[in-house]
Amino acid sequence: MAATILLIDDDLAYLELTTMMLKLEGHRILTATDGRAGWALIEKEKPDVVLLDWNLPEVSGINLLKLLNEKEQQFRPYVIMITARSQMQYRVEGMEAGADDYLVKPFDRKELLARLNVGLRTINLQKTVAEQARQKTVIEMAVAVAHEIANPLATAFLLQQRLAKNPTVRENQPVKEDLELIGKQLQRIESLVRKAQSIETVVSVPYARDLTMIDLHHSKGQEEKP
Q1: Is residue 116 included in any domain, yes or no?
Q2: Were both Cys, which of 10, 83, 126, 137 would link to 54 (CB 3.0–4.6 Å)?
């Protein structure tokens, strides 16, 4: 599972060796040598995993963790604190501050990769659960809106048909054509309402700027009815 991994450590030799090792595994690697620069990269790049040292210039690893926990965001990176502090009190403090895992230097390459894979599986699971919840919410909203539209739409249909049958209207060709056009548009709306009511899987497409919208024509279960 390729991922974006941010290394925050002021040990340049460690950064170089770990970067090389993780790039060989196919990951995209970012580096920072102090907490302030690391925080800037977290906000800008939104890495999947952060390998975080405890002792850092500018902002310590513990304080950076606290900042990360205070930040409101849907997904936060999986943080593995990597430090030479091996005493249990530091392990506990690091985990309580928000680290997801704790690894003591020097570490074995296989152990780091194993812990990293655990983190990536955790992230993927969280994203899957969040996406399922998002789709459920979007579907429920689409069905609710479609239900609210259905009643006034039915009334509009009845009025359109009543007017179309009016002798005066039938003798007025321009008005008759306008009513026929209104009827076709109402049928189109009715078709979209049926699709929204029976939507099964959400397919989003770009709409404007950072907004997206549900594509009723390509969502699962939304085949065009004759």
Answers
A1: no
A2: 83
